[in-house]
Design a protein that fits this description.
By secondary structure, the chain is mainly beta. The protein is about 5% helix and about 35% strand. The protein has 3 helices and 18 strands.
Length: about 325
Amino acid sequence: MRRLTAALLAPLAVTAALAGCSSSSSQATGSTNESVKVSGAEGKAPTVHIPAQKADSSLVTKTVIQGHGPKVSAADTYLANFDVYLWRGKTSKLLYSSFTATPQVLPVTMGLTGLQKAVTGQRVGSRVLAVLPPKFGYGTRGNSQIGVQPTDTLVWVVDVLHAFPPGVSASGQHVSNGGGGLPTVSTGTGGIPQVQVPKSSPPGKLVVKTLIKGTGAPVKAGQSIVARYQLALWRTGKVINSNWPSSTQPTAPPSVFTLGKLIPAWNTGLVGVPVGSRILMVVPPAEGYGKKGSSQAGIKGTDTLVFVIDVLATT
């Protein structure tokens, strides 16, 4: 399921610049694609009717449910639940549903130009339909990883749950920079945390220290969160993983994590942290990847991990 999601959302080269906001409906009157219907209550998986006819070449976008939150801009990323249907010839099938898994954070400019048009300008809380002929979807190459051929039409139904502006980070009150035997954390360009690890030995137990205290609801056990993070090794002081934007991934979105499915330190250490907070987490091996470490990530079984985590939202 994780691989399917990654393939579905893999950024593509944007082939056209889309200006302005999407309207409540953009369609060719009388087209087959216009006859796609969506029903169902807000917050629940939608019921989608796709006609047993061959799709045409018209892009169709509709606001099925009008939200009342902030508008989504083309520069934003957004948290969404969504269904994706593959429409081939006179048949259609559900390709993926986050309603049965976990909401995902998507960049508006992820490369599907028709979906970008459908979402840009929508308000948080909206349900949006987008019927994407190939030229507004994966183009002439299709997407072989998920079985989409160059002639296939895609039908997306998207519930916009939350919008995140570029450079979104912890938004609460600054209370600490760490230090005093712990790593020191400062804020660099674009709000990206800068971590300096001391030369001393790391603590032997899990440390969770609030650097910025948010004002949102506390995270609950088992809940999914939207977060930015950096991971450094105490042994080297170097950052080895991050989901912040970079020169190679300038539109990198925040990530969704579900507590209870992560390393022990995250499963327990994030419980009770208010949304909007930035925390420093120093993780001994037993609370991280254990004695085996993670050779793929360059983590030894003796490594203490240093995380800086911005909790941006809960799902």
